[in-house]
Design brief:
It is a single chain. This protein has helices at 42-58, 70-81, 87-105, 115-127, 139-160, 190-201, 206-215, 219-222, 263-278, 304-313, 322-335, 340-347, 353-358, 363-377, 383-386, and strands at residues 2-3, 9-11, 15-23, 30-38, 230-231, 236-239, 242-244, 247-249, 257-260. By secondary structure, it is an alpha+beta fold. The radius of gyration is 26 Å and the shape is globular.
Length: 405
Amino acid sequence: MEKTKYAGIYKAASGYRVRAYATDPKTGKIKEVDRVLKGISLKEAIRRQADLRDEIARCGEADATPQTTLGDYAKLWLERRSERWKMSTLMGAAKTLEQNILPNLGPARLDRLTKGDIEDWMSRLHHRPHHRTGKPLSNNTVNHSLRLLKTILKDAVADLRLPHDPTDRVSGLPEVPRPENDPNCLSAKQVPVVLGYIREHHPRAYPYIFIDVTTAMRTSEITALKWSDINEEDGVIRLRRGQVRGFVSTPKTGKVREIPLTPEMVEVLREHRQRMIREQHRGLASGLVFPSETGSYHYASWTDKILRRVVQECNIGHRITMHGLRRTYNNLMRRAGVQYLVIQATVGHSSDEMTNHYSSVGLDEKREAAARLMSAIKAPEATAFCSALGDQLGDRRFGLTVEGS
């Protein structure tokens, strides 16, 4: 069965599989019809899907009204996207629904939701204390939930032929820009200080954070990185996958990405590898470069406490997160004069799609960019950080094969 670009329509061996959803007027529940239609074209399959929706809607009393609740429809809406969305996206949507939308709006009937209901929900959500900080939820969090709700209700209007969309003309809260004193990134002088502190006080986290700050990998990518993705001979790291809570798929953009492997990275990774072998780390068999203590995938939050301690001990003056290290890479590259297109290709941004479509960034350009980054962070304060790097490499190799380890 092969997916098409039309939701609910799949190419079968001798025709098309067509799935249609609509509210059954008899029960007020969402009803699904799933049929395999042989010997028809894609155009006919699209028409038959519309006919099937009509059949469901007509199979009851003419004056029946939809009784479907937002909670019922949202669950089916997520299920329909499970075949097309990445697991990380699906889990994010499910979390937003569970925590921010359904507790208040879940029991409401779709045909009775009003603009006032949506605005009241936004107000309550905005003043609800955050489960960890106790502070009211931010405008950005409320707006993110509203965007998801708008998407669901637009689909509900189309699927269930509702009389109106209650989110029409509902505006989001004013976006609050990040304060200037909370940039969530490090300066060129702060990077070696932070790395030096982590190397001394948190040596097991040092290779992970060093590679992250010098490559701008996403957390989902670096936690899924394998030794087989690293080619020292070619001087390149190939990002082939990402993982979220153990669910592995392609990287966020869906494309394999190449990152230059500098001599400094080689040395740090080699020392990390040797330590894993000496300690017979449980993750050796998995092939993961940065496995958890149990040998499986790390959670995204495993470095949070370390970075909070870094902020205090190194007098950073503002928070820093793993995503902030990715911002750090972008800022340092830009300050080093690296072309934006090269930065974009290295970190895997999908914005400016037309520029990427008609342009090609070579590995040689990425290598030059990586070299500039290393020069930018080699400050006098970085003695501890740089001491084991550079000319000490010689002809040594990783020893990526784990046989006999």
